[in-house]
Amino acid sequence: xxxxxxxxxxxxxxxxxxxxxxxxxxxxxxxxxxxxxxxxxxxxxxxxxxxxxxxxxxxxxxxxxxxxxxxxxxxxxxxxxxxxxxxxxxxxxxxxxxxxxxxxxxxxxxxxxxxxxxxxxxxxxxxxxxxxxxxxxxxxxxxxxxxxxxxxxxxxxxxxxxxxxxxxxxxxxxxxxxxxxxxxxxxxxxxxxxxxxxxxxxxxx
Length: 205
Prior knowledge:
With 205 residues, this protein is mostly helical. It is 66% helix and 6% strand. It has 7 helices and 3 strands. The chain has helices at residues 20-30, 37-61, 67-79, 85-92, 100-108, 130-150, 156-204; strands at 83-84, 112-116, 124-128. The radius of gyration is 25 Å and the shape is flat.
């Protein structure tokens, strides 16, 4: 006999999204060794990024660009010099391969140009064009004002404290990844030595 569904249940009805506190509580209950705070940070950062990213995509979309393309222009403006694709990718925290299509689009629009790197002819440099400078002068003032409105709920001190915390989080993640990579490399070397030892023993026997 099939159990009866609640009267207010509808087929295909979406369940309400749990608040972050409830999501963390559920996960922490599944693993008693965790206090849930790391997961709380992860979910909060993801949610904030997703909200801000959607807003920026809508705003910058009216300019005919994607957020990454807009960030490429503003980064080149701040560097004030021709920049290699590798350096640009590092500043934007993206893989160099992810830049190529966006660089092509910006070059087609005349907002940047590519130059041969005189010190390393295997690489190209991205340069902000006068048209790119004009584009930013026309759009950046409104962009900065919008950012101020979006973050009006935080005082200047709170914003700077948030930057400090996020920087510490980035450093913590990088340190943990480095330790994991070192441990993996050590395990790989140990495995290789063990294999070589076994092979040597077999030859002697």
